[in-house]
Amino acid sequence: MRILLIGGLWLDGSSWDEVVPVLRDLGHHPVPLTLPGQGDGSTSATLADQVATVLAAVDAEPDRPLVVGHSAAAGLAWLAADARPEKVAKVVMIGGFPAGDGSTYADFFEPVDGLMPFPGWAPFDGPDSADLDEDARRAFEAAAVSVPEGVTKGVVRLADERRFEVPVVLICPEYSPDQAREWIAAGDIPELGAVKQVEYVDIDSGHWPMVTKPAELARLIAAATGD
User: Is the entire prediction scored with pTM above 0.85?
Assistant: First the structure.
């Protein structure tokens, strides 16, 4: 199956380097995406530019792909399901949830000169980063790409209720499937509360399993294809 891989904030397509070969060995065709403003050198990219890149990748596939979004990019994967509900086979969200219509995409930290840099490890102290050793942290910081304000402060627009027919798999890293179920049942994630088919999958990792448990993450993504 064709699998589109979308990294979260500060990540480019190389963040999937350890995941891709495992998916290939399992018989799939992974396509890691480098988003505008996250690896292409642009400092003026917008959320609309990133959505357009994801939709172009979906449209380029001859069959319906699995769309995988990590962290904030769970929202990008969901925007693809909204714009192309008939073309997206399933959405996998790793450590993230989609924002609702009218919400800002990822306005989490203060921008500097129009860019939101990686804020360091303090905001991610605890379960998010507990499995990253010092070498992994240094490598992450060195590779981190500051994200344009036009992306992080972009407004999410969702319009097609057929998106709720697209199956969703939640891969739960720094939180448990039971916690995710509770949040959705409490109405904290309205978009997922309306989805007709949601599957919950546990992975014992921090927020970046593509770094710390890439083979296991690849196997879980492959399992989500249903093949």
Answer: yes
Q: 94 pairs with which residues across the strands?
A: 70, 171
**Phi and psi for 110 in degrees, rounded to 5?**
-70, 130
Whole-number Å distance between alpha carbons of 70 and 7: 5
Tokens coding 106: 């990822």
Question: What is the full DSSP assignment across the chain?
Answer: -EEEEE--TT--GGGGTTTHHHHHHTT-EEEEEPBTTBBSS-SS--HHHHHHHHHHHHHH-SSPPEEEEETTHHHHHHHHHHH-TTT--EEEEES--PPPTTSBS---S--BTTEE----SGGGTTTTTTT--HHHHHHHHHH--PEEHHHHTPBP----GGGGGS-EEEEESSS-HHHHHHHHHTTSSHHHHT-S-EEEEE--S-S-HHHH-HHHHHHHHHHHTT-
pLDDT single digits (tens) 64-118:
999 999 999 999 999 999 999 999 999 999 999 999 999 999 999 999 999 999 9
Q: Tokens representing 143? A: 């590779």
> With contact defined as beta carbons under 8 Å apart, do 158 and 82 qualify?
yes
